[in-house]
Specification:
The protein is an alpha/beta fold and 433 residues long. The protein folds into two domains: 3-55 and 329-428, Aspartate Aminotransferase, domain 1, CATH 3.90.1150; 88-309, Type I PLP-dependent aspartate aminotransferase-like (Major domain) (Aspartate Aminotransferase, domain 2, 3-Layer(aba) Sandwich), CATH 3.40.640.10. The protein contains 13 helices and 15 strands. Bound molecules: pyridoxal-5'-phosphate. Pathway: Cofactor biosynthesis; NAD(+) biosynthesis; quinolinate from L-kynurenine: step 2/3; Amino-acid degradation; L-kynurenine degradation; L-alanine and anthranilate from L-kynurenine: step 1/1.
Amino acid sequence: MTTNETERARSAEAEALRLDAADPGHRHLFHVPPADGGRYPDSAYLAGNSLGLQPRATRTELLADLDAWSRLGVEGHLEAERPWLPYHELLTAPAARLVGALPTETVVMNSLTVNLHLLMVSFYRPAGERTRIVIEDTAFPSDSYAVRSQARFHGLDPDTAVVRLRPRPGEENLRTEDVTAFLAAEGHTVALVLLGGVNYLTGELMDIPAITAAGRAAGAVVGWDLAHAAGNVPLALHDWDVDFAAWCSYKYLNSGPGALGGVFVHERHHGDDALPRYEGWWSTAAATRFEMTPVSRPPATVEAWQISNPPIFAMGPVRTSLELFDSVGMAALRERSLRLTGYLERLLDEVTVDRPLTVVTPRDPRRRGCQLSVRIGEGSANELTKRLRHEHGVIADAREPDVVRFAPVPLYSTYHDCWRVADALSATVEASS
Ligand SMILES: Cc1ncc(COP(=O)(O)O)c(C=O)c1O
């Protein structure tokens, strides 16, 4: 580095620290992993879109639930401070607030792909010429596998039953008008639209209300995978008339690896006996659960989609996290997110200008959450993220072959983290001469 470059880097770092002092976020509430390289003790953690950090409160809360089990045994179902029988209800209202739903429309259960399958049992019912499932070409592979296996389950050929929407040639992101035009033209053949609210690869935030309206107007059912949207962007699933949605809690919801997912089913589908659904003892109304009768009496709420009794020690971290979201508020988080990601974008603009790096996430802040995805023109994404981590203590994640994702998470990421990303990229990726 020349003296001038060193001076510029120093003043940019000082600026990041000034911004952190003015707009501090809630990092103190989280465990930040120590750095595995570089000159700072903590890592710059930009991988919250993959696995969120552990809230400090999680351990204490989990231990309290474990204590109840050791003290009470089976009686904990009714006598624990947070009794296990209705424990899942503690999560319902905060989850509903997070996604803009009525409490009767939201339940926390199972994992994301399992929930998508359970929802497709009800909401993917191919008939006549209306057989197709629409996904985005860059859907997360698990979703692609899930819908293809659903098509096969119904005796259909997945190669023709699953439609993969692609961006226009030379573009990185889907345009809303192209999705709605497709639905207007071919919607009569579509049974289900199942898109990611925020695309896992590009970070694009879809226009959920517009696409939902277009899909429903075409007579299709519209569901959303909100793995990268829940806790990242404000949502209003009820008002947007979404049919169903599912999300995980291990990314922006910081509830730990493999954490339980959430489900939304719009109230217009509640109590509809014509809808096929898989059932177990948690599908029957709570008041009838111990009548030990052979026939269920499901409630007219989303809880009819539950099957098994919930894993309490997996629910604890989700409860803790949702309380945190309630106390900070999604609107405030989104405001900080716009500031942080806008700042990272400005820094990346400077770094990418003379390097083989391109930000592929939409530039319009209304069309993205906190994540910025960078396509690398040379070398492997895995190799680059390894170097960022071991040489600079920057944790990002790679999606092979050529995308590296950076997610400044508004709860705990800092401006200094963003500065470290740009600094590390400029040191690691050679500028073209
Ligand atoms: C968009 C999306 N859908 C589905 C999944 C799969 O989730 P799970 O393994 O919890 O079923 C992931 C996991 O990262 C994801 O990002």
